[in-house]
Amino acid sequence: xxxxxxxxxxxxREERHDEERHREERxxxxxxxxxxxxxxxxxxQGHERERPRRPALDARDAARRAARHVEGLTGRAAEGVxxxxxxxxxxxxxxxVVETRRIPDSTDxxxxxxxxxxxxxxxxxxxxxxxxxxxxxxxxA
Length: 141
Known about the structure:
Blueprint: H1 5-30, H2 37-44, H3 59-74, E1 78-86, E2 90-100, E3 109-118, E4 123-133
Antiparallel strand pairs: 1-2, 2-3, 3-4
């Protein structure tokens, strides 16, 4: 074979090899992506491992949002948080509010509101659960 034809023949061989490689890459990209069989079977049977769910709202933020909701609904400033409990789908928070200011302030009338928030901090429910004078001790102590 004359030397002038060898480089041309090798170049054509390389071009064919490149074309085949590109064709394979394109066909791989066009194939639908699927999960490995074992993972697919486990998912279909409902045995996929659940990851622990992290609440969207932590306790401090839940208390702050509950206080803001009570203030917005009653028009009275929150005096403090009396209880805080993580529920299945959110938070249950007790918020204390001064309903009536008196002199001396030991005779103020306080109310406790129970606020339920969902995981995103939205108000699910609220209700006044009790009223009492500030100066009276808690009978449950």
